[in-house]
Amino acid sequence: MTKDELLAAATSATQVSELWTLMLDYAETQRIARVSYHHHGFDEKWGAAAANPTTLRRAMDDVIVSATPRFHIIAHGFPREWVDIYVDDHLYEIDPIPALAQRRAVPFLWSEVAELTRLAEEQAAFLERSMPARVGDGVAIQVFGPNMRHGYVGMGFGDRPRDVTAPQLAEYQLVSQLMHLRACRLIEERNRSEIALSARETEVLGWMARGKSKTVIADILGLSPHTVDTLVRRIFRKLEVFDRTAAILKAINLGLVPAMSTVGD
């Protein structure tokens, strides 16, 4: 699968699982043996959008892990024993490669991490521990999404020598970024459809995000304070929260209101 074929197919995908399959097809044509995807920022409903049926542990050749309610990993092609250790021992918390990728705008090789950053003792120990697993070398790519929904894509060469060129690195970064943004959109659409705020509730939520009180919102919308209070309680119930701050943060995270709505007028 070429880059252009991948991107064309991604625009018509309706599930994150379809995007993952497309990414693996592309990786095969590029002789990429291992692929991992770390996704930050979405709540526990991410797993349902990522796979059908949903699994939080090992399934077939892929592993889907909800490490925390807002941090998720999908991995393919890595040695199963290493994946078990990585997950069970929470090594993703000290893995220096995704951590460095978060601070860099350009891809780098996994083998370069010790040259590019100062490693903490536990991070150096992680690299030593990974050597017997024969994970091999690969490319680390940071991907950026809306409302801090950033992520990491790892593309491993497996047992073959590294022979990636600068144009290939640029293509891998382009593909990874576009696929990540498409995944963000699909997950947002799913979450919106599940929560299903009414137009009026969305309007009230937007004014809440701008810092307006219920009394001011009532004046702005020409509603009674009692009606606004009822709408706010409905919003809390649908978002499964108990206060205004939690409602606003969750709404921004799910893409129900833009982050810029929090800027005062």
From TrEMBL:
Gene3D superfamilies: Transcription factor LuxR-like, autoinducer-binding domain, Winged helix-like DNA-binding domain superfamily/Winged helix DNA-binding domain
PROSITE patterns per the UniProt record, alphabetical: HTH_LUXR_2
Domain HTH luxR-type residues, every copy: 190-255
GO annotation terms (biological process): regulation of DNA-templated transcription
SUPFAM superfamilies documented for this protein: C-terminal effector domain of the bipartite response regulators, Pheromone-binding domain of LuxR-like quorum-sensing transcription factors
Record bears the keyword DNA-binding: yes
GO molecular function: DNA binding
Stored PANTHER family: DNA-BINDING TRANSCRIPTIONAL ACTIVATOR DEVR_DOSR
Name this polypeptide is given: Putative transcriptional regulator
Organism: Dinoroseobacter shibae (strain DSM 16493 / NCIMB 14021 / DFL 12)
Lineage, uppermost ranks: Bacteria, Pseudomonadati, Pseudomonadota, Alphaproteobacteria, Rhodobacterales
